[in-house]
């Protein structure tokens, strides 16, 4: 049965199993000493008061006072709680006994009896901590299983998501070989597009990529953007870095993308773009300068502001980011540390 399978039992089912087991053990233990009805009623009362002690501690006293560092108040309230438990249980047991079972020999609720019940309740109170640990274990176990299930599902979704990109890569390769015979320039553009797609799938999710990998992506992007523009662009891309350091991916893309979105006039023959990537000591400087396109409704996207937020997360205050427009040219500049 699934109900008896530990992997299928949740915390609620576990608690019902425990209290049912406690009641049945007590019931069959006292059955030879009394009638079935008497044994059933008094063991039901005992189980109920055991639950009051345990849940009163783990759900109210312990989290509200002990865990909030009010230990003195916690101890005082525990003593009051146990005395109240002893009085309530003593009077209820005597009332039930005198009303239904002890007509000929009624019993009285004495101070010593209340004290005895309160002291005996101390053992149940101590067991409440074990009960609390058991509940925490089941809760943690359930969370662990849910996390593993989510991880497995995420891995499955990742595998599914990789099917389409690799299918596209293979298809682009086939198209490339077909185009290479008839139109070598078109084949070269297809190859650049395939490289860009491979970068998005394989490299962009990484924490860091090599500078050369990032530059290769930018160059592919620039060449593909050029085919959308009617006239030639005077574009100069300067690269000067000593070592192929690793940097977070897609940092330079915002500047270059903004050039083709907002800085190119597709009807003009005077578009000029200067891009430079320079290493100065332990810093990397990326700068773009482009002629400003003449547009009546020029819009400014949120890319620069998002890049600034990303720099703040990556480098705290250890970076520079500036943009500005002057004399018909727009400049974007950032400086970041490298390791």
Automatic annotation (TrEMBL):
Domain Signal transduction histidine kinase internal region: from-to ranges: 154-232
Bilayer-crossing regions: 16-34, 40-62, 74-94, 114-140
PANTHER family: SENSOR HISTIDINE KINASE YPDA
Any one Gene Ontology molecular-function term assigned to this protein's record: kinase activity
Protein name as annotated: Sensor histidine kinase
Keywords, comma-separated and alphabetical: Kinase, Membrane, Transferase, Transmembrane, Transmembrane helix
């Amino acid at each position: 049965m699934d109900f008896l399978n530990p992997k299928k039992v949740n915390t609620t089912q576990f608690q019902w199993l425990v209290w049912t087991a406690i009641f049945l053990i007590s019931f069959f233990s006292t059955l030879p000493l009394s009638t079935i009805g008497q044994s059933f009623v008094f063991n039901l009362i005992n189980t109920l008061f055991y639950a009051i002690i345990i849940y009163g501690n783990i759900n109210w006293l312990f989290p509200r006072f002990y865990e909030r560092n009010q230990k003195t108040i916690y101890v005082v309230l525990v003593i009051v709680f146990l005395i109240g438990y002893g009085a309530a249980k003593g009077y209820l047991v005597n009332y039930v006994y005198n009303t239904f079972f002890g007509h000929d020999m009624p019993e009285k609720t004495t101070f010593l009896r209340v004290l005895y019940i309160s002291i005996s309740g101390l053992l149940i109170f101590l067991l409440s901590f074990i009960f609390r640990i058991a509940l925490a274990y089941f809760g943690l176990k359930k969370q662990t299983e849910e996390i593993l299930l989510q991880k497995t599902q995420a891995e499955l979704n990742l595998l599914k998501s990789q099917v389409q990109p690799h299918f596209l890569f293979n298809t682009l390769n086939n198209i490339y070989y077909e185009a290479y015979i008839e139109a070598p320039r078109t084949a070269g553009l297809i190859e650049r597009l395939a490289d860009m797609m491979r970068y998005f799938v394989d490299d962009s999710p990484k924490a860091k990529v090599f500078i050369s990998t990032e530059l290769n992506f930018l160059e592919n992007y620039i060449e593909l953007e050029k085919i959308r523009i009617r006239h030639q662009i005077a574009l100069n891309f300067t690269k000067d870095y000593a070592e192929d350091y690793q940097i977070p991916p897609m940092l330079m893309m915002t500047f270059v993308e903004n050039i083709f979105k907002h800085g190119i006039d597709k009807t003009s023959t005077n578009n000029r773009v200067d891009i430079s990537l320079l290493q100065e000591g332990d810093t990397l400087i990326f700068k773009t300068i482009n002629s400003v396109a003449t547009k009546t409704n020029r819009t400014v996207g949120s890319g620069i502001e998002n890049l600034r937020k990303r720099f703040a997360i990556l480098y705290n205050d250890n970076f520079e980011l500036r943009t500005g427009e002057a004399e018909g040219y727009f400049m974007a500049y950032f400086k970041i540390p490298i390791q």
